[in-house]
Every structure is written in C-alpha cells, then in structure tokens.
Design a protein that fits this description.
The complex is a heterodimer of chains A (359) and B (313). With 359 residues, chain A is of the alpha/beta class. Chain A is built from 13 helices and 12 strands.
Chain lengths: 359, 313
C-alpha cells in the first residue's frame, strides 16, 4: 500500500454479547480508504457493513456491543485508543455519517437550520466563541454573544443548504423536517454532515429510502461535492449499480469478513471470490433474457454459531475440505486486489459466471 | 407610524414562529371542548390575578410563630358574627359563612391558593421526574434499575395515603401540602418519561446527533427529552386538575390549609355542617373546584390533539 491511507482498519473484531450468545458480527475486518476516493462496501443484509461503519465512529451500543480487538487508524491515529471526549471532537468534524432514512435521521422538534447550526457550534468557532468558551457567569453577555454566534452560524447553515442545491435555503432553514420531501431531507442531512468539511463521509445506504429519480440526484450531488471538497466517501449499499457508477474501489463483505477488495473495475470484471461472483451473477441484466437469475443458495449464517473455517463454505460450490478447517487470509493476488479464498486460483480460471458486465 | 414599523419588523423576523402559533390556535379552535377548557382556565387565572379588584373583602397577612418556633405568614379574614350565614345578595354575591366572611371574596382569593398549589406541585414534580426518568431511560443498566426501583417503591404506596402521611407529619399548612404532593407526584412522571425515552432513543436522529459529536448529556437533554415530552405535557395538564382535587381533599380532611385560609377544600369542609340550611356555603367553593378541574381536563385533551405531530398540517 504505497499511498497514505486516510482510514485503515486492521483485524477489527466487534462482538455483541446477547442473552442467546455472542454474536460475532465482525471477525477480522481489514480495509483501507484513501483520501478523496469513493469506497463502496457491499454485501448481503446482516453481514456487518453497518457495524463496521459504526465501529469506526465508535457508536456501537455498549452494552451489548463491544469492539474486542483490532486497530482503526484514521489520519495516523488509532481511534480505538481515543477517549469518548476525543471521539466527540472527531465525529461530525472529521468523520461524518449519513443515515439510511432521511425521514427519521432528522430530529422532528428542531428546524433544519437549527440542526445544522448544532453541528457548526459543536465544532467551529464564531467570532472567537464556540459552545465551550461562552462566558459562564455573565449571563447578559452570554446571551448577547450567543445571539451573535447564532446569527453567524445561521448564515453558514444557509450556505450549507445552498451548497446542496436547495432552492430558497433561507426559508428551508426555518422549516421543520416534516415540511420537506424525502429528497430535500436527505439533502439537508448531507448539508448537515458536510457543514464542517469532514475528510471522511460515511454514507450508510444513503439512497435506499428514496425513489429512483431522487436517488440519481443525490448521488450526483455527492459526487459533485466530493469533487469540490475532496472528501472521501465510504458508501455502504446493496445496490451494485450505484457502486459501479460511483466508486473507485470496492470491498465485498460476507458474515463479518472482507472477502474481496480492490478497484471497482477489477472486482466487477473478474471477481475472484465465489461470493462476489454469486453477487454479480444475481444482477438482472437488461440485455439478456433469462428465466431465473443465478442465486447464491442459502442465507447468511447465524453469527452466534458461524460455520468453522471460511464462513462462506456451506454455500460455496468450490468448497473443499480445507475451507471447513481454516479461514482463508486476505491476500493480495495482484496489485490492489485482495481476496480471501483458499481456491481463488481455481475460481479465477473457471468460467462459470464470467460474463459481460452491463448494469 | 414608528410603532407600526417596529411591529412590522417584529412580525417579519418571527414569521415562521407566528405561523406556527397561528396554526396551533387554528387546530385548537376547531375543537369546541378544548376551546371551552382554555376559556375556563384563562377565566380562573384572570380571577386569580385580579382577585384584589374583584373581591369586596380582603385578607390580611400576619406573621405567626408556631409552637416549634418557626415563623410563617398566615392568612386572616376579618370575622363579623352579625353577618353570619347570609344568603347570596348583591352585597355578598355568594352569601356569607358561619363567621360572617364574604364567600365570594374567599372563593376569588382561593383561586390564587389553588393555582399556586397545582402549578408549583406539577412543575417541580415534572422537573424531578424528567431528570430522573431521563437518566434512567437514556443510560439504562444499573442506574436505570436503581432509579426505577425507587420509583416503584413510591408507586406501591397509594399516593393519597402517602401524601396524607407526609402532610400530617409535617404539620398543617399549604406549603407542607405542596411538599407532600411533590413527594408523591414525581414517580409517574419519571415512568412516563422513561418509557418514552426508551422508544425515542432508538430513533435514527439520536444516532445522527451522536454521530455529529454531541455528548451524551447534550443528546439526552436536547434531542431525546424534547421528543419524549408530548405525552407528558398532556399528563401535566390533566394533573393540574388532579393535584387541585387532591390538595382540596387534603384540606377537607384537615391536614391541609390552616383554618381561616381561603382554600376551597377547607371551605367545603367547614361548610358541610351547614349544608342543609346554608346551601351556598358548600356550593360555590365546590363549583369553583368543578370549573377549574374541568377546565384543566378539557385543556389537557386539547393539548394532546394539538401537539400530536400526526395531526399537524
């Protein structure tokens, strides 16, 4: 890995200690995100994509969750070694997160502007004042300064809204979330999360709850903002089309493991891991007429009792005895293309699902 | 002209807020009963505020020293045996009581006492309940267990009995009634708030607030509690009436206000001996209680309808 990474996760293990047993949600996750790029994380539901993101933010609900092991390096610092106060300075400021449902991710009792102002005030100074160093005892002065600070922050909030191409941002800033449409809310959310110019934006299925035309607009907007601000985007999604369109690099996740990682082109053109192949095969293609799509038999295993060895082996048609015994390590098969499979050589040369890519 | 411009600027500046309030009023106006409640409550509040102008007799306040040596201010009404138990007349609108005091004046001043009791009790218990319930619900775990078990202990004793015990132990006075009522009134609030918070804290905006770097306390007090408040608000308004009833009840039993105070429950209590030959003595304080409690209850229902976000817009 020649370039400096923005975020690199090493051997991350996050477990949830529940009544029924220990859910091994993340088992050995390794991934790298470079400054300014778009990284896509794909995989079935329940394979740990969101948990990875929440682990990076250190927002895993504790208890029952716990990051058991691993390192999360962000800008040369290990986030797992940081105190809660230090994390609060990073969240929203350095790393932001956009949530799946814009309907519920905005607080219904505050105006959109107020919520953007909250982020700004938490991390920025206005005329030399932030939330922390307001005069504590001189209440009159505090009030006056607060008013001034608020005024300036409001202007900046309006700018943030304008940046995400909301028309009439002054008006929208004074509106409540329920007065806005889904697309508008997601825009407001993006404005809120980008208000402090973070260097990493985690987008956890940012378009899943939106309709298709709005999806395209939002993705376009994110791309545009990325170009202007140089933010790295970490996109978590099921939608392989979106990944192909947006991402520079892709990570494929299965049952708490990163099974394949590399440049989008490589992953989509010649996937080496059987699971990735299965995913690609399950995409309906407009150019082909087919009765049934190829599917991956079975479902994601129960992570309290994960299968031994490679967690994918019960569903894998290439599985051999070795797969049942030891989990395959993530190896670099060619430059910037990592695969975790004992038989990637054989898989590579089989021509079962290698087909023209068209989405 | 200058005034008009200031007004214009004011309306322009607070446009969205004014719009909001107007909309709330509009929703409120659609319901006759809640409008009724509002009018009744406003009426009682106005009576309490303008009591000195409405009443024909006025109490004097004297400082008394009790046996234990504590000093406190007591309310005294002038006694006039020549006018005792007179029926309602233009001079004494609601008649007079067995000490010749004007019942109308006492009912009017009684509004002050009653409102003071219910507002203080409800506000202070709300503060206690919200803080304790909020901490219990948001942080969970052991803190939750400890706070909620204490709440359970309080809830397992009938509120009225506990208040009675506390009030009689503290001694007879309105302040002690308030303390006793606060003592028993906060547990349900802590429960309601905790239950609400358990569901509200799962919302994505709470996670979002944490993801922008807000501290736990900030998330709790700025994001979670305001969103859990609406059911409590209804409870509070309904409880204003309930507190009034209980306080009047305590005074009626004889652990509340000291004799001679213009307190509705106390007036009914002393009037019940004369119920058959002086109907006005119990009727008017009773009516006052009835109107106030009804007003608060109707208002509570109205507020529930208005604050429900699903009904807005």
């Amino acid at each position: 890995m020649g370039r400096d990474t923005l975020l690199s996760i090493r051997n991350l293990k996050t477990y949830f200690f529940t009544y029924e047993g220990v859910v091994k949600a993340l088992e050995n996750v390794n991934l790298d995100i470079y400054p300014g790029e778009t990284f896509g994380l794909i995989g079935e539901t329940g394979c740990g994509k969101s948990v990875t993101a929440l682990s990076v933010m250190r927002l895993i609900p504790e208890p029952p969750g716990k990051i058991v092991e691993g390192e999360i390096w962000f800008k040369g610092e290990n986030l797992l070694k940081k105190s809660e106060e230090e994390m609060q300075k990073i969240r929203g400021n350095e790393i932001s997160m956009i949530f799946q449902e814009p309907m519920t991710a905005l607080n219904p009792v505050y105006t959109v502007g107020d919520q953007i102002i909250e982020v700004l005030l938490l991390h920025k100074k206005f005329s030399g004042f932030s939330m922390e160093n307001l005069p504590k005892y001189n209440l009159l002065r505090r009030r006056k300064i607060k008013k001034e600070v608020y005024k300036e922050a409001f202007k900046e909030a309006v700018e943030a809204l304008r940046m995400v191409q909301i028309s009439d941002p002054e008006k929208v800033a004074k509106q409540y979330p329920h007065e806005l449409s889904g697309g508008m809310r997601q825009r407001a959310m993006i404005a809120m999360m980008l208000a402090c110019d973070p260097s990493l934006l985690i987008a956890d299925e940012p378009t899943t709850a939106l309709d298709v035309t709005v999806q395209a607009q939002i993705l376009e907007l994110m791309k545009d903002l990325q170009k202007r601000k140089g933010t790295a985007i970490w996109l978590i999604t099921h939608n392989l089309g979106v990944v192909a369109e947006m991402c520079d690099r892709v990570g494929v996740m299965y049952a708490g493991y990163i099974v394949e990682m590399g440049a989008t082109e490589k992953i989509f053109d010649n996937p080496d891991h059987p699971y990735t192949r299965g995913l690609m095969g399950a995409i309906p293609k407009i150019t082909e007429e087919k009765e049934r799509l190829e599917i991956i038999p079975g479902t994601v295993p129960n992570l309290i009792y994960p299968p031994p060895g490679c967690r994918f082996h019960p569903r894998c048609k290439y599985a051999i005895d070795k797969c049942k015994e030891s989990p395959p390590p993530l190896v670099e098969v060619e430059k910037d293309h990592f695969v975790a499979c004992h038989r990637y050589e054989e898989v590579k040369h089989s021509v079962i699902v290698k087909k023209e890519r068209k989405i | 002209m200058i005034k008009l411009r200031i007004l214009e600027e004011f309306t322009k500046k607070h446009e969205s807020k004014i719009k909001d309030i107007k909309h709330m009023l509009y929703l409120f106006r659609r319901s006759f009963l809640s409008m009724m409640g509002l009018i009744l409550v406003l009426f009682v509040i106005l009576v309490a505020i303008f009591a000195p102008f409405l009443a024909s007799q006025h109490p004097s306040f004297v400082e008394v020293t009790s046996e234990r040596g504590t000093k406190r201010v007591e309310e005294r009404w002038s006694i006039n045996f020549e006018e005792k138990l007179l029926p309602p007349s233009p001079k004494h609108l609601f008649g007079t009581d067995d000490y010749g005091r004007d019942i109308f004046s006492m009912v009017v001043y009684g509004a002050r006492t009653s409102l003071k009791i219910c507002l203080l009790v409800v506000v202070i218990s709300t503060i206690i309940g919200v803080i304790l319930g909020g901490i219990a619900g948001y942080f969970g775990g052991k803190i939750d267990e400890v706070i909620m078990r204490i709440t359970d202990i309080f809830l397992s004793i009938p509120g009225l009995i506990l208040a009675l015990a506390v009030a009689s132990a503290l001694g007879r006075s309105i302040e002690h009634v308030m303390e006793a009522l606060i003592f028993v009134w906060w547990p349900p609030y802590a429960r309601i708030i905790r239950g609400q918070i358990l569901s509200v804290r799962e919302n994505q905006y709470v996670e979002a607030a944490r993801s922008i770097g807000a501290s736990s306390w900030r998330v709790l007090f700025k994001h979670v509690i305001p969103n859990s408040f609406s059911p409590l608000l209804v409870q509070i308004t309904l409880d204003l009436g309930a507190v009034l009833l209980v306080a009047a009840g305590l005074s009626f039993i004889g652990v509340g206000a000291t004799p001679g105070t213009a307190e509705w429950g106390l007036m009914i209590s002393s009037g019940r001996m004369h119920m058959f030959h002086a109907w006005w003595y119990v009727t008017f304080p009773g009516l006052a209680i009835f109107i106030t409690v009804l007003g608060f209850n109707l208002l509570g229902d109205g507020i529930r309808d208005v604050t429900d976000p699903r009904l807005r817009r």
